[in-house]
Amino acid sequence: MGIFTVLCALVLLGAAVPAWSEKHSLYYIYTALSKPVEQPGIYQFTAMGLLDDREIDYYNSENQRKIPRQHWMKEKMQQDYWEKGTQSRKSKEQWFNVNVDILMKRMGHNESDVHVLQWRHGCEVEKQGDEVKFSRGIDEYSYDGDNFLSFDDKESQWVAPVAAAVPTKRKWDNVPILNQYTKGYLEKECVDWLNKFREYGDQELSMYSPPEVDVFAKRCTSDKTKVKLTCFATGFYPKDVTLIIRKYRTPLHEGEVESSGIRPNDDGSFQLKKSTIIQEDEKAEYDCFVNHITLKEPVITKWDGKCKDCTQETFLGMAIGAAIGGLVVLGVGGLVYYLKRRRNRQQNDSDTTRSSSTGSQDRVINYDKHSLYYIYTALSKPVEQPGIYQFTAMGLLDDKEIDYYNSLEQKKIPRQHWMKEKMQEDYWEKGTQSRKSKEQWFNVNVDILIKRMGHNESDLHVLQWRHGCEVEEQGDEVKFSRGIDEYSYDGKNFLSFDDKESQWVAPVDAALPTKRKWDNVPILNQYTKGYLEKECVDWLIKFREYGDQKFSMYSPPKVRVFAKRCTSDKTKVKLTCFATGFYPKDVTLIIRKYRTPLPEDEVESTGVRPNGDETYQLKKSVKIQEDEKAEYDCFVHHRTLKEPVITTWGRQK
Length: 653
What we know:
This protein is of the alpha+beta class. It folds into four domains: about 20-205, Murine Class I Major Histocompatibility Complex, H2-DB, Chain A, domain 1 (2-Layer Sandwich); about 210-300, Sandwich (Immunoglobulin-like), CATH 2.60.40.10; about 330-550, Murine Class I Major Histocompatibility Complex, H2-DB, Chain A, domain 1 (2-Layer Sandwich); about 560-645, Sandwich (Immunoglobulin-like), CATH 2.60.40. The chain has an eight-stranded antiparallel sheet with strand order 4-3-2-1-5-6-7-8. Strands 23-22-21-20-24-25-26-27 form an eight-stranded antiparallel sheet. This is MHC class I antigen.
């Protein structure tokens, strides 16, 4: 039904610059489950208001209060607005509870299964200058994710795409005054509220932002002569944008182009991606045309010819026991686990800040990166090793352990003194109950997986789950960067959540039944996405605020450059740049030749690693001709430095 996403893309067939009109929307979305779901954060009934795809109010069946989601809504709307809104939402909750039961009986569905009834209604307008014009109204219902009933605003009647909806259509169409009210609400009352809300939130909503445009490609596995050419625009607001892939400056037919549709970013801006398959030797014939209200003229960009590796990073792996090599021991209590990541992920994502240091430019834009992850590990049977438990769970804030649980003590406990001081007793009590529940879930599911994989129960098997979020912080602005929700079995990728697509990805056949089962309950996927992008970020910010004194103890890097002669070629040395003792962990370290950064594939990196004193270190190396040593330097920048440290071999700074 596409009930959550409104796509408003204005597509040009020529290169002319359009006369732009703004598009705005106000929607209300109601979701009712046929029975409670024993999952934290998932309620039997929820309702929310969305202004230009930004949540402005919220209600759930547990708290039973309509509350503001934007500060300006809280400031501008009087108390009686929220009181009346609460009563209205309670009334709708009762209506939904009755009607989801009616639909289940009408559809002949089993009451033991979870079924979902959803309603979306609202309006869209176009604004050109000071003129605001009604564009369209939406009033539609879905059942278990499929279209059920919708209102035809032009004809003032209901449309039933399935036979089970026909009785409702007839009943509602037989009361013309209700259809007249629905039409009047969509075209008039909804538009009035939309205009009022935009006026109240004008300062925040009118912050226009131009698109950033990137063109890249990935080689096709089925035909090595072809590549998948992608044009990606992001960071733009408002959401209306023109993005066209062209050949000889002529737009490709829509049937040749794959589009993601316009999607929201976490900062209130939007993104759009389009792709097409082309012959690699014809790359010069293609370009990407992007236009937006913020641009004086269109952006026209071509592919630079470099093919990107777009495969997903490998998942978190697991190894256990004293007899298994490659172990990393994390935290007091002896949980043993191994996080397996791609080397380029270590070098480029979690290890360094974004750098504008190219050529002779030595200015770096620093972003603080922060993360909150929870890691759960279940063994198929006990291991007679001290400090290794059948089930463990831990929380990691910026890679520092903040809480811990194991199957022997069965108690969630703080690992940082500030967690003990700031978090109330009921937080630890509820956390303990949650961990006990997850322990039971893991014990059941690791047995299910052993049977599904046809593995021997006498052997040791491991099921692991990691979920959480990462953010970027620049000044006072905190932006969601990415969310992770992934499972591994015996150290190999098993199942992961695609946050952008809101669906599960199964890299192995044995995971397909679980993927299908979970994807068939859309409300669970919506909850997962919401947790990663909102609730997790809120907890991350709260924890960093609580531990602020400790986390704000910044420390600058100490930088050394040294070399070791290569045994295979006496004319070469292995030049190493080593930075240590810095906090926070985000750092830029670049080995340069003639002040130009070396390509990443020429450089060996350890990735950022923790020291024993809660500071970090990073080491990068490259093989060079010894007589060319004067051409190389080591460029290091960190938020604690007023200017970058630039050091050459033999001259330490």
